[in-house]
Design a protein that fits this description.
By secondary structure, the chain is α/β, with parallel strands linked by helices. Helices cover 47% and strands 14% of the residues. The chain is built from eight helices and seven strands. Strands 3-2-1-4-5-6-7 form a seven-stranded parallel sheet, sandwiched between helices. It is globular.
């Protein structure tokens, strides 16, 4: 067990599985007090019991503004929020012309409006204490275009824009804002990602997986714990001079 986050309270959205759960486990191992969020109450309770019996849980949909502000007020009743990890999100793969308005809107609401709501809700507390670290889970999809996921790419480009603007606006208050931009991470969202691309192209899921992993020098998907390790750094005082960055985890894909 480490102490890199000792004395810090962290609110992590989308914490019941995938990247969010890996970050929660890594933060636990470094001494953070955990406030965990996800939409599904049963899944969140089960994950929290397995991660840290002392973690507090706040099931709600973070695209619902009223629920978010209520959640943050409940978290802050137990103490200030030192680190916010905006991780909650969804992915729907479609050719651009096949998206329904409802599908496109659902991705933007889950991936962008959630960041807007939760971040606005925590900022007053962070400004009062003149310190804080905000970590947005973006994606390499927020850096360039790609086929069959325009909604997801648009959402992650927006997250990168929010990250950079907040970094400038909040730095005078001692609040740092950064983003993590992983390539495809080996989670259940990746399974959905692969199935969506397979449906859009007519290829098998195995061929899609092989085609994607063949494009990176280290030919595999990103491990959730590799994203979590970077989140620990960005949440800790070690990264005190890191602000407004989109830190890419892509095995060197951008060099190709």
């Amino acid at each position: 067990m480490g102490t890199r986050l000792a004395g810090k309270r962290a609110l992590i959205t989308g914490a019941s599985r995938g990247i969010g759960r890996a970050i929660a486990e890594a933060f636990r191992d470094e001494g953070a007090a955990l406030a965990l969020n996800a939409r599904n109450p049963e899944r969140l309770a089960q994950a929290a019991a397995e991660i840290d019996s002392s973690a507090t849980i706040y099931p709600c949909d973070v695209s619902d503004r009223d629920s978010v502000f209520e959640m943050v007020a409940q978290v802050e009743a137990d103490g200030p929020i030192d680190v916010l990890v905006n991780n909650a999100g969804i992915h729907i793969a479609r050719p651009f012309t096949d998206y329904s308005f409802e599908e496109f809107s659902a991705v933007i609401e889950a991936n962008v409006y959630s960041v807007f709501h939760v971040t606005q809700a925590v900022l007053n507390g962070m400004k009062s204490q003149q310190s804080g670290a905000i970590i947005n889970i973006a994606s390499t999809a927020g850096r360039w275009g790609s086929r069959n996921q325009s909604a997801y790419n648009a959402s992650k480009h927006a997250v990168m824009g929010i990250t950079r603007c907040l970094a400038l606006e909040m730095a005078p208050h001692g609040i740092r804002t950064n983003a993590i931009c992983p390539w495809v991470v080996a989670t259940d969202m990746a399974d959905s990602f692969i199935k969506g691309h397979a449906a859009a192209t007519g290829m098998s899921t195995e061929d899609i997986t092989n085609a994607f992993t063949a494009t990176v020098p280290i030919q595999r998907f990103v491990k959730p714990e590799e994203v979590a390790a970077l989140a620990v750094y960005l949440g800790s005082d070690e990264s005190g001079f890191v602000n407004g960055q989109g830190m890419t985890i892509d095995a060197g894909y951008t060099m190709i």
